[in-house]
Specification:
alpha+beta; Heat Shock Protein 90; five-stranded mixed beta sheet; two-stranded antiparallel sheet; 10 helices; 7 strands
Length: 388
């Protein structure tokens, strides 16, 4: 019902209200009929006018009809309805009639159904004693009516609890879907940034280098442009892969294997070819790690080198992987301190460092990016668990 438009909910509420009103009307008519049948089923009391074979008294009929009519408001004031029904029966008994107590029984069941259990129990005792002492009914009848009303209340509350639980679960599911979608968008944003920033930077540096050496070394310039072309084709393939995954609801599209630390030497060689004096150092005992952790480490190195290529002109860049017993330390350090600083994560251009921090956090680690006396230092600490 929460998903229906406002007009549909209003129509549904009106339908439920009308159905309840019709039920109460039918219940009042049937109860009044039963009570009139019980009231005049026997000898005519003294002073009562007889019409044909059916004894009819104006006072008992009016009292019975009024007692039955108050059942129309049993949902709004069940306790007052019970008192009115008992009062009607109390008027008829001294007149020599024997009411059946049907309005009282229905009012008692309604009270047990619609009000707090303590209120209905408090009303049950005097009502049962009144019906017993007035010789209207035995104790099992009011007790049974109260038990029926209590059962209806328990069942209704149980149904409400189930509906509320279902609504809560639906809200939680929607919130989880939103969180998952937000995480997926952040992941896609990181992937796109890594692919585009890295590739465009390498292409730009390659094109500039080829332009500079074209007059003097056209062969070298041609080789540089070939490497730029290969890098552009690879980036285009990566972008197409991501777009296919986004357009495929069931994620059944063919996935390209994600890069790992085994390809880090190739990545460093590509930057070295682009003119960056970068070297790779490995310390500790290298070993296979979880795929997600290797991807995070690879992307952190890739983004750090891209920042160095874009914002500095170092004479030495060092990429270090330190395989510890419980963590992997990834360090990228350059000595290009005399040039434009790498943008901070708080600036408009700081998505790269922000993305690196997010990748480290997703892997359960941390990342520190700060300027040094000679250049800039990026250090990521990623937990890898105990070594086998």
């Amino acid at each position: 019902m929460n998903r229906l438009p406002r007009w549909a909910r209003a129509a549904y509420d009106l339908l439920v209200a009308r159905r309840s009103a019709l039920f109460d009307l039918a219940l009042a008519v049937i109860t009044t009929g039963v009570e009139l049948g019980q009231l005049f089923d026997g000898e005519t009391p003294v002073g009562v006018v007889r019409v044909g074979v059916i004894p009819v008294g104006v006072v008992p009929v009016v009292v019975t009809v009024l007692a039955g009519s108050v059942l129309l408001v049993r949902r709004r004031a069940p306790l007052a309805v019970l008192i009115a029904a008992c009062a009607g029966a109390a008027v008829l008994v001294p007149l020599g009639y024997s009411p059946g107590g049907a309005p009282v029984v229905v009012a008692l069941a309604s009270l047990a159904d619609l009000r707090d259990r303590r209120v209905s129990v408090a009303a049950l005792v005097p009502t049962a004693l009144f019906l017993l002492l007035a010789s209207i009914s035995s104790l099992p009848i009011p007790i049974g009516a109260w038990a029926l009303g209590s059962y209806l209340q328990t069942r209704r509350r149980y149904t409400w609890a189930l509906e509320d639980r279902a609504a809560t679960l639906e809200r939680e599911r929607e919130q989880l879907d939103q969180i998952a979608a937000q995480r997926e968008r952040a992941s896609i944003a990181r992937e796109l940034h890594d692919i585009v920033a890295h590739s465009v930077t390498v292409i730009l540096i390659g094109v500039r280098g080829a332009r500079d050496i074209l007059p003097t070394s056209p062969r070298v310039a041609a080789e540089t442009l070939e490497r730029v072309e290969a890098s552009a084709e690879q980036s285009l393939a990566e972008l197409r892969r991501i777009l296919v995954l986004l357009r495929t609801p069931d994620n059944s599209a063919q996935r390209r294997p994600q890069p790992s630390l085994d390809q880090l030497a190739e990545l460093v060689a590509g930057y070295r070819t682009a003119g960056m004096p970068v070297r790779l150092e490995l310390t500790g005992r290298a070993r296979p790690l979880a795929g997600g952790l290797e991807l995070s480490a690879y992307r952190i190195v890739e983004e750090a080198l891209t920042n160095v290529l874009k914002h500095t002109d170092p004479t030495q860049v060092t990429v270090t992987l330190d395989y510890g017993r419980t963590q992997l330390d990834v360090t990228v350090e350059d000595n290009g301190g005399g040039h434009d600083p790498v943008p901070s994560a708080d600036s408009a251009d700081g998505h790269g460092i922000l993305g690196m921090r997010e990748r480290a956090a997703v892997a359960g680690g941390s990342l520190d990016a700060r300027p040094t006396a000679d250049g800039f230092l990026v250090t990521a600490r990623l937990p890898v668990g105990e070594a086998a």
